[in-house]
Amino acid sequence: MHTVVLGSAGVTAADVVAVARHGAHIELSDDALAALKAARRTIDDLAAKPEPVYGVSTGFGALAVRHISPELRAQLQRNIVRSHAAGMGPRVEREVVRALMFLRLKTVASGHTGVRPEVAQAMAGMLNAGITPVVHEYGSLGCSGDLAPLSHCALALMGEGDAEGPDGAVKPAGELLAEHGLTPVELREKEGLALLNGTDGMLGMLVMALSDLDRLYTAADITAALTMEALLGTDKVLAPELHAIRPHPGQAASAANMLKVLQGSGLTGHHQDDAPRVQDAYSVRCAPQVAGAGRDTLAHARLVADRELAAAVDNPVVLADGRVESNGNFHGAPVGYVLDFLAIAAADLASIAERRTDRLLDKNRSHGLPAFLAGDPGVDSGLMIAQYTQAALVSELKRLAVPASADSIPSSAMQEDHVSMGWSAARKLRTAVENLARVIAVELYAATRAVELREGLTPAPATTAILRAVRDAGVQGPGEDRFLSPDLAAAEGFVRSGRLAEAAEGVTGPLA
């Protein structure tokens, strides 16, 4: 099993995906343990002084004016976890909760939170045991971080609340800890607050969305190329010199992908004599520009994610010189903005893919293909309703593109009077990514059928490899009407798994 070693300097996106999705084992490095011990000494020294220090010897949020006596401080830390574990609604996905826990552990291991080493080790132990706290959909305003979701995780660490075991069964958290030889944590000064106060949920969802979107943007370039081929379009618009004079890197990458897929095609640019076209429609001709703009958006979002992965988000924080200072680094605006930005890009990529699919199905615009790619149009409806499904998904994507981060709602008696709504932005992006995969799957289904209907013409070698792979995956080709939903589900799985890119790359070599 892959092992992720947590030091005091942050983690990579690959580490997050490995832990969240693939159950990677976590170890704390010696430098992380040393940083934890040093920061804890600072907290213990402050706790012994009579002066109030926020998070150590005071209440929280609007209640920070109250000084808490030493005999009540353990109760204070337990109480903040219990009271903040106020989530409602459906359970959040296991991979999201694991990412959330791992990223909180990343900040704890930085040595800037003042948490004891044994608490960090207990967090790693829960993750390594496959124990996943039950976290609910609603409860985070993205400031001060993802409070309610993180509180449910901290509650399980204390042996309270519910959690899911590695077998998928939900049980009381204390029972699961005991089954795996783990001891519930008794929190001390600052520790309850430190376990709750970060952007970890929205960041984890951003990292996983970036991983998924990398795959989907490559898939979209491939399906755009297949549609261009099926429509007997011209690949001259993909020439590198045309994209060099508008030097957006994403655009060049998408055009290069399409050109590689179409290399050696006997369909593109050779069969327009019967219906001359000076130019292909925008949805075909401008595919690299739209997908490329999305690729550049991904690059910006990745930069933000990498910076956040290197950050220690907590309030207050323990600085290297021993000071403990309040700050606003828990505000989720940097992450919330790019989550919304990605939802816009995903919606537009889906929109252009749907327009290409519709063109394939319309006999007046498909340059000789049968209506709806049906076996016997009129008797058969072909892919008519597959496009309806795709259109419904695109419409939903457009609604999901409305920014969450433009909203704010005051909380905590106006102490927390501007919030990021980054968690909400992340939740809707997850839905958008799922729907984008389905939209691309419908274009793949239509484009592969359309290419096969161009009898007597030889598709590109990469297209031939894709056709073989997609049929082997259970996606059927042209013919009379049949139950379409299983075919579409198989196409979706083919796209999501990365097998579409693998099939193309077996001929083209690596695609961007």
Automatic annotation (TrEMBL):
Localization (cell): Cytoplasm
GO molecular function: histidine ammonia-lyase activity; phenylalanine ammonia-lyase activity
Enzyme class: lyase
GO biological process terms, semicolon-separated: cinnamic acid biosynthetic process; L-histidine catabolic process to glutamate and formamide; L-histidine catabolic process to glutamate and formate; protein homotetramerization
Location in chain, cross-link 5-imidazolinone (Ala-Gly): C143-G145
GO cellular component, one term: cytoplasm
Organismal lineage: Bacteria, Bacillati, Actinomycetota, Actinomycetes, Kitasatosporales
Catalytic activity from the UniProt record: L-histidine = trans-urocanate + NH4(+)
InterPro entries the record matches: Aromatic_Lyase, Fumarase/histidase_N, HutH, L-Aspartase-like, Phe/His_NH3-lyase_AS
Family membership: Belongs to the PAL/histidase family.
Protein's name in the database: Histidine ammonia-lyase
Species assigned in the record: Streptomyces coryli
